Amino acid sequence: MAKTSLDKSKIRILLLEGIHQSAVDNLHNAGYTNIERLSTSLTEEDLVEKIRDVHFIGIRSRTQLNERVIAAAEKLTAIGCFCIGTNQVDLDAALERGIPVFNAPYSNTRSVAELVLAESIMMLRGIPEKNARAHEGGWLKSASNSFEARGKTLGIVGYGSIGAQLSVLAESVGLNVIYYDVVTKLGMGNARQVGSLEELLARADIVTLHVPETPSTRWMIGREQLSLMKQGSYFINASRGTVVDIEALAESLDSGRLLGAAVDVFPVEPKGNGEEFVSPLRRFDNVIITPHIGGSTVEAQENIGVEVSDKLVTFSDNGTTITSVNFPEVALPSHPDKHRLLHIHRNVPGVLSEINRVLGNEGINISAQYLQTNEQVGYVVIDVDKAYGQQALHALREVEHTLRTRVLYSGIDYD
Ligand SMILES: NC(=O)c1ccc[n+]([C@@H]2O[C@H](COP(=O)([O-])OP(=O)(O)OC[C@H]3O[C@@H](n4cnc5c(N)ncnc54)[C@H](O)[C@@H]3O)[C@@H](O)[C@H]2O)c1
Ligand SMILES: O=C(O)[C@H](O)COP(=O)(O)O
């Protein structure tokens, strides 16, 4: 019987942007040893070159996996975003090539929520300016524009994992919480959903954004929205830089409508720690500027390293795509004495019956089978007797509308 799997040590894994050592350790423990780990992201040109021979890539928010890069990734099997956001990946381009994308939807949410609550309290007390003056030798002892959090209203835009967690923390210090979300959601504690973004902007003392980057959130906060905010209110953005018109935010700070802001994400961010950060917000002492570190805590990064590498290993070892953000979700218990075939195809009628027909024609008995589809793609996992693995793979490749096929042999096979 022909051995069909590629030795795990030949499976190339590229980890970028300083992904935590926990990911490397986890992959090693699962038998994957061919790992290159870089502390930075790569330019498009470098990525196109480097990704050619890579089976798995791990990135964070900075690496742009656009259509051109994905098209160059001839061997790429799965993408791991070691963060929450997946807007940096062309998810459709990956799907079209049968490449599932995974992320870590929960591991850094607490870190962001804690930071935002701390920033709210710091801004209410005017700490950013007082701190800046003291560093210059000044002494701004004053109660003017210095407030308790108790009884103020926090307005959360996007009540998902981070927004909801922040809501709980905020109520514990006496903030009243209102939130706006495109989906109707049950509030935590006494938090109340409002019917429109405009209502939230008009009622909140502090507005904080926790939406993903999508076409509906792009530039959702501009001059008009900021003009609806209360005189003397505060603004926080730790979501994505493209959600806010930063020039309009600077104008609101100049006009004094906003007493302060805290911004962690920017439309253009430096590619690495050595590059200059350019922003109209640099001139404001009452703005807390942080370098996209909302999720950058030791705890979050260690957990993310384990969570996403686990997902890559599980997919690599048995084809499971549960929690993939772009792919039909399939999990079939492993059958150690069988060969597992993975078949990814365009989601058009008749493919499954064609698969079963070609396998039947070859006299191949199917031990287990599971199909899931999304609008574009169908994903079938099929277990067959070991003696037929290679033959079944050849038969499946002939099925019309096939995007990709693979056979797993006591682990995995890569084309
Ligand atoms: N600064 C950081 O380091 C950092 C860390 C983690 C996450 N993030 C960003 O925060 C975002 C939110 O994270 P999450 O885990 O809470 O995501 P989530 O998906 O759990 O929640 C997002 C919420 O936004 C809502 N939403 C979507 N479009 C909306 C719109 N147009 N108006 C109002 N609400 C809308 C969704 O319904 C959902 O409830 C991530 O997508 C990521 O971009 C940043
Ligand atoms: O999407 C996220 O989880 C955050 O933006 C954090 O991204 P990072 O891993 O690049 O810090």
From TrEMBL:
Under the heading InterPro entries, the entry gives: ACT-like_dom_sf (IPR045865), ACT_dom (IPR002912), AHAS_small-like_ACT (IPR054480), D-2-hydroxyacid_DH (IPR050857), D-isomer_2_OHA_DH_cat_dom (IPR006139), D-isomer_DH_CS (IPR029753), D-isomer_DH_CS1 (IPR029752), D-isomer_DH_NAD-bd (IPR006140)
Top enzyme category? oxidoreductase
Keywords noted in UniProt: Amino-acid biosynthesis, NAD, Oxidoreductase, Serine biosynthesis
Pathway(s) per entry: Amino-acid biosynthesis; L-serine biosynthesis; L-serine from 3-phospho-D-glycerate: step 1/3
Q: Where is the ACT domain?
A: 340-410
Task: Output the NCBIfam families linked to this UniProt entry.
Answer: PRK11790.1 (NF008759)
PANTHER family with a match to the protein in the record: D-ISOMER SPECIFIC 2-HYDROXYACID DEHYDROGENASE FAMILY PROTEIN (AFU_ORTHOLOGUE AFUA_6G10090)
- What job does the chain carry out? Catalyzes the reversible oxidation of 3-phospho-D-glycerate to 3-phosphonooxypyruvate, the first step of the phosphorylated L-serine biosynthesis pathway. Also catalyzes the reversible oxidation of 2-hydroxyglutarate to 2-oxoglutarate.
**What protein am I looking at?**
D-3-phosphoglycerate dehydrogenase
